[in-house]
Amino acid sequence: MFSSFDISTSGLVAQRMRLNAISSNLANMSTTRNELGQPEAYRPRYVTFQTDTKIHSPGGGAGVRIGSVETSNKPPLMKYQPGHPDADAQGYVQYPNVDMTTEMVDAMQATRAYEANIGVIEITKDMSEQSLRIIA
């Protein structure tokens, strides 16, 4: 029974990391400079998940862990803004290639998965309490 808590907890941690990457992508969707202050568009980050065989249950369940945090290889969006301080010689500014709709759908999916893991923890807790009540 405790392994189901561990499996659900691993799902909570993984989805929280995914939401962190999504929030970072949305927060930086207009960023035109890197951390050194040089003109360079922010590159969106995406979290990949991997099955964690260290967390498993006798019934065949397995946990999840962060496989990697990848940086997007998509080219930046080029906007013609000759008066912008980060414009190149032709007057184009590089903006991050972040699609707000895709990020919001991913955020909703991560939120639903997070809620589902919390639901499993609540159900497991109720089963444990009822089992102890029957035994006592």
UniProtKB/TrEMBL annotation:
GO cellular component: bacterial-type flagellum basal body, rod
Subcellular location: Bacterial flagellum basal body
A Gene Ontology BP annotation from the UniProt entry: bacterial-type flagellum-dependent swarming motility
A Pfam family this chain is assigned to: Flg_bb_rod
Domain Flagellar basal-body/hook protein C-terminal per the UniProt entry, residue ranges: 89-133
Domain named Flagellar basal body rod protein N-terminal: residues: 6-32
Subunit (UniProt): The basal body constitutes a major portion of the flagellar organelle and consists of four rings (L,P,S, and M) mounted on a central rod. The rod consists of about 26 subunits of FlgG in the distal portion, and FlgB, FlgC and FlgF are thought to build up the proximal portion of the rod with about 6 subunits each.
Similarity annotation: Belongs to the flagella basal body rod proteins family.
Protein name: Flagellar basal-body rod protein FlgC
Protein source organism: Aeoliella mucimassa
Source organism phylogeny: Bacteria, Pseudomonadati, Planctomycetota, Planctomycetia, Pirellulales
Encoding gene, per UniProt annotation: flgC
